[in-house]
Amino acid sequence: SLRFLNASANKLETLPPAILSEETHSILQELYLTNNNLTDKCVPLLTGHPHLKILHMAYNHLQSFPASKMAKLEELEEIDISGNKLKAIPTTIMNCRRMHTVIAHSNCIEVFPEVMQLSEIKCVDLSCNELSEVVLPENLPPKLQELDLTGNPRLALDHKTLEILNNIRCFKIDQPLAGDASGAPAVWSHGYTEASGIKNKLCVAALSANNFCDNREALYGVFDGDRNMEVPYLLQCTMSDILAEELQKTKNEEEYMINTFIIMQRKLGTAGQKLGGSAVLCHIKHDPMDPSGCFTLTSANVGKCQTILCRNGKPLPLSRCYVMSCEEELKRIKQHKAIITEDGKVNGVTDSTRILGYTFLHPSVVPRPHVQSITLTPQDEFFILGSKGLWDSLSMDEAVEAVRNVPDALAAAKKLCTLAQSYGCNDSISAVVVQLNVTEDSFCCCELNGAPPPSPGIFPQSVNVVIKDRPTDALGMPSSSSGMASEISSEISTSEMSSEVGSTASDEPPQVVMNENIPAYPGEQRCMLHPVCLSNSFQRQLSSATFSSAFSDNGLDSDDEEPIEGVFTNGSRVEVEVDIHCSRVKEKQLLQVPVEASDEGIVISANEDEPGLPKKAEYSATGTIGRRRGNGSVAPQERSHNLIEVATDAPLRKTGGYFAAPAQPDPDDQFIIPPELEEEVKEIMKQHQEQQQQQRQYPMDHIDYYDTPL
């Protein structure tokens, strides 16, 4: 009479025979054997259960699944054979006419199985394998809803195949990532997975941003709506933007995390009145201006979504679940005279006293999160973010032990999800695994003359950085192990930023020959977080200083016109070469440089006869100290710091190039100021001259500290 058997997480090496006598027949329908030591010898014994509908044999030692044995399991509807060493799925799976779910990730499958021939197929997971191509029928199965092909590095799909697969409701494939020329390891990499629960509803969502705000930050999150899909989706789409805004207001971890959750509560609007959701956010940040600063991990959670950190192989909880068993929460709720039902829920709705949504239960239920910050060390291996379903099925020790030896973050997240389902979880599950590579020297050590290890990046993504002749251990970019199509990323590409400010910068910037005999910073050693601007490396800032529309933007300058050093012209735009990095070592020198304020920013003037600046510190090749414009450009050091005058001296372009250029205007009329702006420009120039005269009359030697945009 046995219909259901779950023998997962044991040390089984063999199975008992299915038929004890000729008179008895097995009616077993569901069999879970995940996380055992079963081998190929056990597969023939499964044929004694002809009525088997669900079979889970993930994370065993299977190397093959005989086709003849699969053919006898005709009533099979769901099979999970992930985490083995299978190289193929037998073609006789076509005999299983009722099959709707095939999960075979984390194997060695090289040939795409014929699962697309099954009329009832709904979900196919072939991630983390060795597929090289996909063979599709003329028409996709009508009920196919999900196809996961992530984690197949050899897979190459043509345009026609992609067009067909994009018709699937949930199609996941790795996004092509720009290669890192340095080849340096990343400080963090992540992978995540989601699985629907009862009634095939996906009530969870995940957030992953390897490059959050800038290349030295990351943000990850998991959201669980229990039985509703609306709240997790809203949290996934909104919380990263709210956090980015709060980071501009304060740098205190607890303050910006609490503010993020409180603002999110208001933004839920009507959806948060009677619905709610758990949430956990993990923010990694690093302050490059602090020479002794390390990477800091800040975790904030409400509800039953939690984070654990693996340190020295042991789990370190970073979250807390506020439920009725907490004495302080029970006392607070009783003060508000809320009803506590027998099952430990507030007004019979939720057992979490701190959760997003459920505004009709306020003030008994509040969105204030538990916040914990920790400094990452080389002993930290990875951290896991999981939804309620994951932690209800796996203990923290089991989760750490299960994925500690899995090298790939995506495969680790998949394993956690598979184990939870095999252990009996029927809820939606979401898991994010972030692997860490923090070394001893991963902090800014400009003052220590040391070189820290590679880190995710040194410049914001809105800047096009060209670095050549960099050593092999240069900075690396964090890689995403999952690359799923549903990933929410906060990064802004260089091309997008270029279109915003109107730059027409080319992909291959011109080379500038600098005076190598006079270094910009003589005798100074800098870390890789803030390297010295090399003679053949530079950082390009985008500028929107506009020339006359009659200028040619399609050819190179002629050889008889020498370009202004540090200034690149590309059609109707100007780009200025600058060197921006941590200048704490030069603080004393900077304090002696006069500062004058204007309507458009700060002007730092450095005169040749300035007594506080040594002659060698005058940046002969590239002006590090210059005027910072509102659009991010920096004007090179000149007697006059007006960018319009600098742009006027830019060399003219002659007829030629790739296309026929229009006739060039008269040199005296090469810069056109609109009539409505003439008075404003004259007023600004007049103010600059007056401020410079005042600056010479009143030196700023008495000022101890001031801040500048640089």
From TrEMBL:
Residues 683-710 are annotated as: Disordered. Transmembrane segments: none annotated. It comes from the Eukaryota. Residues 189-436 form the PPM-type phosphatase domain. Gene3D superfamilies: PPM-type phosphatase domain, Ribonuclease Inhibitor. InterPro entries: Leu-rich_rpt (IPR001611), LRR_dom_sf (IPR032675), PP2C (IPR015655), PPM-type-like_dom_sf (IPR036457), PPM-type_phosphatase-like_dom (IPR001932). SMART domains: LRR_BAC, PP2Cc. GO terms for molecular function: protein serine/threonine phosphatase activity. CDD domains: PP2Cc. Residues 699-710 have a biased composition (Basic and acidic residues). PROSITE patterns: PPM_2 (PS51746). This is PHLP1 phosphatase. The lineage of its organism: Eukaryota, Metazoa, Chordata, Craniata, Vertebrata. The gene is Phlpp1.
